[in-house]
Amino acid sequence: MNGTTAKPLTALRRTQTYRDIARALWEANPVSKQILGICSSLAVTVQLQTAIVMSIALTMVVALSSMAISMLRQWIPRNIRIIAEVAVIATLVIIADEILKAFLYDISKQLSVFVGLIITNCIVLGRAEGYALSNPPVRSFMDGIANGIGYSSILIGVAFLRELLGSGKLLGYPVIPEALYKAGYVNNGLMVLAPGAFIVIGLFVWLEHTLLKKSR
Amino acid sequence: MSDRLKTLVFAVVMCIVCSILLTTASRGLQRFQEKNILMDMRRNILKSVNLVKEGVPYSYGEIEKLFTDNIQPIWVDPSGRQVEENRRSEQDFRLYLYTQNGSATAYIVPINSRGLWGKIHGYLAIESDGSTVSGFTVYKHSETPGLGGEIEKQWFQNNWVGKKIVDQAGQFVSIGIAKGAVTDKIPPAKQMNYVDGISGATLTGKYLSAGIRQILQQYEPVSISFRSRPKADSTSRSKAANPD
Questions:
Q1: Does the residue A132 lie in any domain?
Q2: Are strands B82-83 and B93-100 parallel, antiparallel or unpaired?
Q3: Distance (Å) from the alpha carbon of A93 to chain B's nearest alpha carbon
Q4: CB atoms inside a 10 Å sphere around CB A80
Q5: Tens digit of pLDDT for each residue in B74-122?
Q6: Where in the sequence is the domain holding A193, given as residue range(s)?
Q7: Which of A50, A119, B122, B167 has the highest count of CB atoms within 10 angstroms of its CB?
Q8: Number of domains in chain A
C-alpha cells in the first residue's frame, strides 16, 4: 500500500491497462504497425474535426463491442461466432451513426459512408476475435479503449498535418498568418487528396519503425 | 442435435435483441434527425439563392428566420399557374419563390434526379429572367465519395452560377454536365449551357444531366412565364398566364 502511494507512476506503469495502452499506442499500433483501418485513415483525415469524431466513434465501438462479445463468449456457439461478432459490431455502429445523425448532423454528412464502414474495420473484428473471445469483459473493454486510442493517435496526427499543410487551418480556424501567404506561401494541394494521406501515414510508419529499432 | 438447437436459439435471441436495440435507437432519435434534415434542406434552399454562405455555421433560429423572411413555398400546376395548398392535385409540383421587396428575384426548383447508386436530391435556383442559374445545391445523394460524391462540393456547385437553361436563340436546352472541362470539350456558342464534369464520375454526370433536363422541362411553363414577364414588374408573377 505504501509503495503505491509513494510511487504512483511506477504503480500505474505496472497495471495491465497501462501496458495495454502503451502497447496499442506504440509497439502494436493498429494502424502504423498492424496496417489495419487504412481505408478510413485515408478518407476522414482531411480535417481535424472529422478525424476526431471518427476516432471517438471507433473507440466507443471497439470498446463496447469487445465488452459485449466478451460477456457473451461462453454462449456464442463456435460455428457461428464470426456472424455473432459482426452482428454485435454492426448494431453498435448503426447506433453510433444514428446518434451522429441526430446530434452532429453536419459532421455525419461529411463522414458519409465511413461511419458505416467501421463495421468492416479490421481493428474491431480483430480485437473481438483475438482478444475479447478469450478474456473477461472489463479487460476486453480496456483493450478496446487502448486500441481505439492507438488508432486515434495516428488518425489525429495525420489529420493535424493534412489540415495544417493542405488548408492552412486547424479545426477550421486559419493558423497560417496572412503575411506568409503574401510572401508567396501556398497550401499544399496534395495534402487535401487521398494520396497525401498515404504519404503521411507512410512517414508515420517509417518514423515508428526507426524509433522502435533504436530503442531495442 | 442439441448443439444445433443451441446455435439456432442463440441466433434467434441475438437477432431479436439487436432488432430491439436498433428500433429503439432509430425511433428515439427520429425527432432530432428529422429536424436536422428539414433544417439542412432549408439551408440548401437558402444557399441556392446565395442567402447563406458555405462553411459558415448558422443556428437553426437564423435559418428559420431567413427562410420565413425570404422564401415562399408554393404549388404550381403543369401549366405553370399557382394553386392553393388545399386545392392542389396529384400532378402539381413544388416551387419556392425568393421574394425581395414583394417581387420574386428568383425561383427555386427542387431537384430529384436519378444518380448512379441512388436518388440525388437538391435545388436549382433560377433568376427572375427565367433562364440564368443563380445556384445549385445537393443535400442528399448516395454517389461514391471522392468521385460522384463531388457533386455536393462547393467547386462543382460554383460552376453552375450564371449558366443558362436556354440557348442563344432563347430556346430551352437545359444544362448539361460536360465530360471534362467545358472550355476543352464544348464549342464556345454552347458553353453557357454546360458545367465542368467530374473526372471518374461520367455516369453520375450523365444521369444528373438527364434528370435536370426532365425536371426543367416539367417546370418550363413556369420559366416561360418568368421569361415573358416585363422587367421590373411587381405583380403576382406566379399567376402570370402563358404567352401562347
A1: yes
A2: unpaired
A3: 10
A4: 15
A5: 888 888 788 877 777 777 888 898 888 878 888 999 999 999 989 999 9
A6: 33-215
A7: B122
A8: 1
CB contact under 8 A, A79 and B7: yes
CA A41 distance to own-chain centroid: 8
- Shortest distance between the Cα of A147 and any Cα of chain B, in A, equals 25
Show me where the domains of chain B are located: 72-233
Residue B99: helix, strand or coil by DSSP?
strand
Q: Has residue A23 been placed in a domain? A: no
Task: Please indicate whether, in this complex, the C-beta atoms of A80 and B146 are within 8 angstroms of each other.
Answer: no
Asked if A94 lies within 8 A of B25 by C-beta distance, the reply is yes
Residues whose CB falls within 8 Å of the CB of residue B195, separated by 6 or more in sequence, listed in order: B156, B159, B160, B163, B175, B176, B177, B178, B182
What does the block give as the cell for B38? 428539414
CB pairs under 8 A between A and B: 54
Short-list B110, B139, B144, CA closest to B215:
B110
Is there a contact between A91 and B22 if contact means CB atoms under 8 Å apart? yes
Phi-psi region of B103 (alpha: psi -120 to 50; beta: other; left: phi over 0): beta
Contact (CB<8Å) A87/B10: no
Collect all residues with Cβ–Cβ distance below 8 Å to B79 and sequence separation of at least 6.
B221, B242
For B112, the 3-state DSSP assignment is strand
The residues on B that touch A, with CB distances below 8 Å, are: 3, 6-7, 10-11, 14-15, 18, 21-22, 25-26, 29, 32-33, 36-37, 39-40, 145-146, 149
Read off the pLDDT of residues A131-169 as tens digits, 9 standing for 90 and up: 899 889 998 998 899 899 988 998 999 999 998 888 888
Q: Is residue A120 a part of any domain in this protein?
A: yes
Q: Provide the sign of the torsion angle of the four alpha carbons B111, B113, B116, B118, taken in this order.
A: positive
Helix spans in chain A (H): 2-6, 8-14, 16-22, 38-43, 48-72, 81-103, 105-111, 113-116, 122-130, 137-167, 178-182, 194-215
